[in-house]
Design a protein that fits this description.
29 helices, five-stranded antiparallel β-sheet, about 725 residues, globular, alpha+beta
Length: about 725
C-alpha cells in the first residue's frame, strides 16, 4: 500500500479568493525614502511603499553608514510608531480641518451679524463678561465643532488686532512648530510674531519637555552627545527616561553597552521598560531625583577633591568649570550673603578693560592676587575677536594663571555664610574661607565658587557652622541620611552608588553618563534636578566632546599608500573613507542651506545681517567659492565609485575639502574684522601653513616610532586583503 494513497488533496479555487485581496494589499508601484517626523527628531530612515499615490506600508531602511570601529551599527533604527505611520496618515481620527468650541462659534456668528468689522465683533465678546464666561466655562468639556478656515482665520486675526489696539503688541505670545520638524512653518510663525511685535515663545516654554537647565548652565539648547556614545560609557545612570519608549531607535546602544562592561543604574518609581536593562533598579520616589544627586554630590566633594584629591578632577574643575572664580560675600545681620561674581573692572589693574563688568576673576596662586582669565563672557563681545574659550591665561598680558580652587589654607578670614535649607524652609550658617580684596569702591570679601559649593553641600572641613557630623547625620541637608525620607532609598544604596561613580570616573577619566528625559523635565523643579546631576558630571570631569578631521585622515592614508604600505591600507579602506567624506560634504551643505533658508524666511534683522554682510561686496565671490569647495566639487567627484578608489583623485579631493574648511572658517570669523574687503596676508595664511607643517611633522615623527600595523586589533584579519590572510601571527605577515 502506497504511503500516499490515503492522502487526498481537495482544492476548491473559489475558497482561496481571499488570497488575492491579501496580495493586492501588499502590492506597490515604487519605494520612496522618507522619515517619520511627527513630533520626533529621530529622523529614522524608512522605505515607503506607494501604490497609485497611496502609502500602502513602510519598512525600515538599511542604508545607515557604519560608525567608527568599536561601536555597534545603527541598524536597526526605527520604532513601532514609524512603522504604523501610514495608519496615522489615513486614520479617520486625524485632524485635517480646524475645530472650535461650539459656544465660541455661536457667539462669533451672532456678533458678526451685528458688526461688519470683525475687530469690533471680537471686542463686543471679550468686553461682555457673560459672553466671555460662556466660552471659558466650556473649556475642558469637549464640545468642539468643525469650522471653516475663513471663520477661524477671522477670529484669530480679530483677536490679535484687538489685543494690539487695547494692550499693545507685546501682550501677544505665540509658538511655532519646533525647527526640527518643519523649518518653514517655524520661520513663518516666528516672522509673523516679529513683524507684529509679539513674543515668540520657545518650545521650552510651551512643551515643558525640554531641559531648561541646559541653557541655564551652558547657554545652549541641550548639551548632549550622540546616543552611540552610550556604548563608550563605563557607568550609565538613567533618570526620567524610558529608552525603549522614547528613544526606541537608540535603545540598543544602551543594551549593547552592557556587553562592553558598562554598569547601568535606572532611577524610576515604577519598573519601567528600561529597568530590564539595569544592573540595579533604584525605586526612587517620584520627583526626588534632585535629593539623590545632592547627597551624591555631598559624598563626591567630601571623598575625592577634599579627602583624596584626584589630579584629573582637580585639573578639570580648574580648566572647564567656574569653580575657581571669585564670588562676593556681603555682610548682613551678623552673617554674610552670597553676591555676584567679582567683576574685573572693580580692580585698579583691570579698571579700563572693555566689557569689564562681564569679565570675572580668579585667585592666582603664583602671584597671590586676583587675575582675569581669558574667555569669560565679556571677551565674546569685545573689539578683539577670537577669545571665546576659557583659558588659564591672564586676559591682559597672556601670562599663565594657576587658579586656587580653595582658599582653605590661604584665607584672610573665615566668615559665616547663610545657605538655604529648602526642605525645612530655614537658613543654615556655614563657615567659608575668604579673602579681602581692595576694589575701586572699597574692600570686599570674596570666596571661590568651589568653597561656596563645599559649604552649600555641607562638606565638613574643620570650619565653624552647621556642618553634618557624618553620613548618618539627618539633621543637616544633603547627607546620605538626609536623602532617605525624600528618595525612599537607603543611605547604603546611595553611598555605594556615589563611590562607584567617583571611582569609575577616576579610572576611566570621566566615562560616566546620565541619560535624562522628559520624566524630569515636566516637574516644576526639573531644572534643579538636572543641575544636581550636572554637578556630579562636572565634579568628576565627565562633560566634554572629542572631535577629529576626516579630510586629513584620507590625505594621510593616501600618502601612506603611496609610500608602499598597501598591505596596511587597501582600496576598500580608501573607498569607505571616500563614502564618509561624501556624507559629510552633503551634511555640510544641508546645514548651510537650512540655516540660510531659516534666517532668510524669518527675516529677523539681527540674524539676516550675518548673510547680508557675506553675500555682497567683496565677500560675495568667496561665499560662492565656499559652496563650490565644500560641496559642489567633492559631491560630483565622489558620487562615482571609481573616483573613490583612485589615490590621486582622493588626495586632490581631500585637499579641496581642507581648503573649503579653511574658507568656511575664514568667512565665519574675518568679515567683521576686515570690513567690506577681504584680505589675504601673512596673518591669514601664515598660521595655517605653520599649523599644517607642525601637524605633518609631528605625525611623521610619531609614526616613525611605532608600528603602522594594528597588531592587537580584533578585526585585523577581516580588514586584510585575501593574499595577507595567512594563518600565522601578524608580525610574520608584515615581515
Amino acid at each position: 500500500m502506497s504511503a500516499k494513497s490515503w492522502i487526498r488533496d481537495d482544492v476548491v479555487p473559489q475558497q482561496r479568493t481571499w488570497e488575492q485581496f491579501y496580495r493586492n494589499r501588499w502590492q506597490y508601484d515604487k519605494i520612496v525614502s522618507s522619515t517619520h517626523g511627527v513630533n520626533c527628531t529621530g529622523g529614522c530612515t524608512w522605505n515607503i511603499h506607494v501604490k497609485d499615490g497611496i502609502v500602502t506600508w513602510e519598512m525600515q531602511g538599511l542604508d545607515y553608514p557604519m560608525l567608527e570601529h568599536g561601536l555597534p551599527p545603527y541598524e536597526p533604527s526605527g520604532c513601532h510608531r514609524g512603522i504604523s505611520y501610514s495608519w496615522y496618515h489615513y486614520s479617520p481620527l486625524r485632524v485635517k480641518y480646524p475645530y472650535a468650541r461650539g459656544a465660541l462659534l455661536d457667539l462669533w456668528e451672532e456678533a458678526r451679524r451685528r458688526y461688519d468689522d470683525p475687530v469690533e465683533a471680537w471686542a463686543s465678546l471679550v468686553n461682555d463678561p457673560d459672553a466671555r464666561q460662556r466660552w471659558q466655562r466650556a473649556r475642558g468639556k469637549g464640545g468642539f465643532r468643525l469650522a471653516h478656515w475663513d471663520t477661524v482665520l477671522d477670529i484669530m486675526a480679530a483677536a490679535n488686532l484687538h489685543t494690539i489696539k487695547k494692550h499693545g503688541p507685546d501682550r501677544i505670545a505665540g509658538f511655532s512648530p519646533i525647527p526640527a520638524m518643519v523649518m518653514i512653518s517655524y520661520a513663518g510663525g516666528a516672522r509673523m510674531l516679529q513683524l507684529m511685535g509679539g513674543l515668540s515663545l520657545s518650545f521650552y516654554d510651551w512643551y515643558c519637555d525640554l531641559p531648561c537647565a541646559s541653557p541655564e548652565t551652558w547657554g545652549e539648547q541641550t548639551d548632549v552627545h550622540e546616543s552611540a556614545d552610550w556604548y563608550n560609557a563605563k557607568l550609565l545612570a538613567v533618570m526620567g527616561a524610558n529608552l525603549n519608549m522614547t528613544r526606541t531607535p537608540d535603545c540598543h546602544f544602551a543594551a549593547d553597552s552592557r556587553h562592553n562592561g558598562t554598569k547601568m543604574y535606572v532611577f524610576a518609581p515604577d519598573f519601567s521598560q528600561v529597568s530590564k536593562y539595569a544592573d540595579e533598579w533604584m525605586r526612587i520616589n517620584a520627583g526626588q531625583d534632585g535629593a539623590w544627586w545632592m547627597a551624591v554630590n555631598h559624598m563626591l566633594l567630601k571623598e575625592y577633591p577634599h579627602e583624596l584629591p584626584v589630579p584629573y578632577f582637580i585639573d578639570y574643575n580648574k580648566r572647564y568649570t567656574d569653580a575657581p572664580l571669585l564670588v562676593e560675600l556681603h555682610p548682613k545681620d551678623g552673617h554674610y550673603e552670597l553676591g555676584q561674581l567679582l567683576r574685573a573692572n572693580r580692580l585698579d589693574d583691570y579698571h579700563a578693560q572693555e566689557n569689564g563688568e562681564w569679565k570675572f576673576l580668579m585667585w592666582d596662586v603664583k602671584d597671590a592676587r586676583p587675575r582675569m582669565p581669558m574667555g569669560t563672557v565679556g571677551f565674546r563681545h569685545g573689539a578683539e575677536k577670537g577669545k571665546w574659550n576659557l583659558l588659564l591665561k591672564n586676559g591682559q598680558d597672556g601670562a599663565d594663571i594657576d587658579p586656587a580652587l580653595t582658599l582653605l589654607d590661604d584665607s584672610d578670614a573665615t566668615v559665616l555664610v547663610r545657605f538655604d535649607d529648602f526642605g525645612k524652609g530655614v537658613g543654615v550658617m556655614r563657615g567659608v574661607p575668604a579673602k579681602r580684596i581692595a576694589t575701586t569702591n572699597g574692600e570686599v570679601i570674596v570666596a571661590t565658587v568651589y568653597d561656596v559649593l563645599m559649604a552649600q553641600y555641607g562638606v565638613p572641613r574643620g570650619l565653624p557652622g552647621a556642618y553634618p557630623e557624618s553620613y548618618d547625620d539627618d539633621t543637616q541637608p544633603y547627607t546620605p541620611a538626609w536623602s532617605e525620607p525624600y528618595t525612599g532609598l537607603s543611605r547604603d544604596n546611595l553611598i555605594k552608588f556615589a563611590r562607584e561613580w567617583g571611582t569609575t570616573a577616576e579610572y576611566s577619566k570621566g566615562k560616566c553618563i546620565i541619560i535624562i528625559g522628559a520624566g524630569i523635565n515636566h516637574w516644576y523643579h526639573g531644572n534643579l534636578m538636572y543641575r544636581a546631576g550636572i554637578h556630579a558630571l562636572m565634579f568628576c570631569g565627565c562633560v566634554g566632546v572629542n572631535g577629529g578631521g576626516l579630510a586629513m585622515m584620507i590625505l594621510w592614508l593616501v600618502l601612506l599608500r603611496q609610500a608602499g604600505h598597501n598591505h596596511l591600507f587597501t582600496t576598500a579602506h580608501l573607498h569607505t573613507l571616500g563614502c564618509l567624506l561624501l556624507a559629510f560634504c552633503i551634511f555640510w551643505v544641508y546645514l548651510w542651506t537650512s540655516q540660510h533658508m531659516l534666517i532668510w524666511y524669518a527675516n529677523i534683522p539681527e540674524e539676516t545681517s550675518y548673510y547680508l554682510f557675506r553675500h555682497f561686496g567683496g565677500w560675495s565671490t568667496l561665499s560662492l567659492l565656499n559652496v563650490v569647495l565644500n560641496w559642489l566639487i567633492p559631491f560630483f567627484i565622489l558620487l562615482q565609485r571609481a573616483t573613490k578608489q583612485n589615490d590621486r583623485i582622493m588626495m586632490q579631493v581631500a585637499i579641496i575639502v581642507l581648503a573649503g574648511r579653511w574658507m568656511d572658517l575664514y568667512l565665519m570669523i574675518m568679515p567683521p574684522a576686515h570690513g567690506a574687503t577681504p584680505l589675504f596676508g601673512l596673518w591669514e595664511i601664515g598660521p595655517t601653513i605653520a599649523m599644517f607643517g607642525a601637524f605633518f611633522y609631528m605625525m611623521a615623527a610619531v609614526l616613525s616610532k611605532h608600528p603602522l600595523f594594528p597588531i592587537n586589533d580584533p578585526y585585523l584579519m577581516e580588514s586584510l586583503p585575501a593574499e595577507h590572510k595567512e594563518p600565522h601571527p601578524p608580525e610574520q605577515a608584515i615581515s
